[in-house]
Write a structure and sequence with these properties.
It is a single chain. The protein folds into two domains: 95 residues, Alpha-Beta Plaits (2-Layer Sandwich); 163 residues, Rossmann fold. It is globular. The chain is 32% helix and 28% strand. The two termini are 29 Å apart. It has ten helices and 14 strands. Strands 10-9-8-11-12-14-13 form a seven-stranded mixed β-sheet, with helices on both faces. It has a four-stranded antiparallel β-sheet with strand order 2-3-1-4. It is of the alpha/beta class.
Length: 315
């Protein structure tokens, strides 16, 4: 990837009340979680993704984002107008931006997530995940990722458990799980750049042999799973969670847990209903900003293929 020549910051500049919706539009376009910066003086929020975008594609991207926002504004005029902005980003700008906004994060007393440049010392017995997000967002700061992390920590018991991270991004959930003792751990994403960054982060944490991120498209997964996992995290857009609910459910062990995130609060009821219809029950949910996430358990038996649980790394 030619980061130096094609790295762009693509932004929607809106009022604070519309920042989450702007984030959804950008995430639907590129499949990565946006960053948000709010100017306290103006009350305007800049919602951005950092993507490789050739110059010749910029006009089309502007047109698509403009059309998407116009459609939203027609239905919800109170959200106000949005400005579309695309600018070239130097690699130094990218690195310094993350150093300003990505700070150490504790998940309970068991896990500390910190950027590679942080020198913070962990508490006794606290697992440390060092992370360089690169172009694949996922640092634990966003409400959806934070919920998934709390579940990965909270669901970890004394018995052997396996973990699958669908839509792994930076690899944060899978790597945190490996550090906490889940084994085996699998991490899948449909974006080659996310797989590359997650692989680098696995090596950075000495987990390259245990966590091997791979390219997978959830829409193309077999409907019958050969291997099922004790905990499955799916931090995806809500329409994908609904349309592929049977494929996702098929990857969860009989007594396992399913963690769903990436869902706007207004969409959570429809996602919840879709999974309740497959025999799941909602164990826990949390709302952060405009996002609601949930942890589910099975209430009825469901024929989802082989009952064999994953017991070997890389399988």
């Amino acid at each position: 990837m030619s980061v130096a020549s094609n790295l762009r910051q693509v932004s929607l500049i809106t009022g604070v009340e519309a920042e989450d919706l702007a984030g959804v539009l950008l995430e639907n376009e590129w499949g990565v979680t946006p960053s948000i910066h709010t100017d306290a003086a103006t009350g305007r929020s800049t919602v951005s993704v950092y993507v490789e975008l050739p110059k010749q594609q910029m006009a089309e991207i502007r047109r698509r984002l403009r059309a998407s926002w116009d459609a939203v504004h027609a239905e919800a005029p109170h959200l106000g107008e949005a400005e579309v902005r695309i600018r070239k980003v130097r690699p130094l700008d990218w690195a310094e931006s993350w150093k300003r906004h990505f700070r150490p994060l504790e998940i309970g007393s068991n896990l500390l997530i910190q950027p590679t440049w942080s020198r913070r010392r962990p508490r006794p017995g606290q697992a440390v995940l060092r992370l360089d997000p690169g172009l694949s967002f996922g640092t634990g700061q966003h409400a959806t990722t934070h919920f998934c992390l709390t579940q990965v920590v909270g669901l970890r018991g004394a018995e052997p458990q396996s973990l699958l991270d669908l839509g792994c991004g930076s690899g944060i959930l899978a790597l945190a799980g490996a550090l906490l003792g889940y084994d085996p751990v699998e991490a899948w994403d449909f974006d080659p750049e996310a797989v590359r960054i997650a692989t680098e982060n696995a090596a950075l944490n000495g987990l390259g042999a245990r966590v091997r991120p791979r390219l997978e498209d959830v829409t193309q997964l077999p409907r019958v799973a050969k291997v099922r996992h004790d905990v499955v995290c799916a931090n995806l857009v809500h329409d994908l969670l609904i349309s592929e609910r049977k494929r996702i459910s098929a990857r969860v062990a009989e007594r396992g847990h399913l963690v769903l995130a990436g869902i706007l609060t207004s969409q959570f009821t429809s996602v919840c209903s879709a999974y309740l219809g497959l025999g799941w029950s909602l164990k826990e949910s949390a709302t952060g900003g405009e996002w609601t996430s949930g942890c589910f358990q099975r209430t009825t038996a469901m024929k989802v293929g082989s009952s064999r649980r994953s017991t070997r790394p890389g399988k």
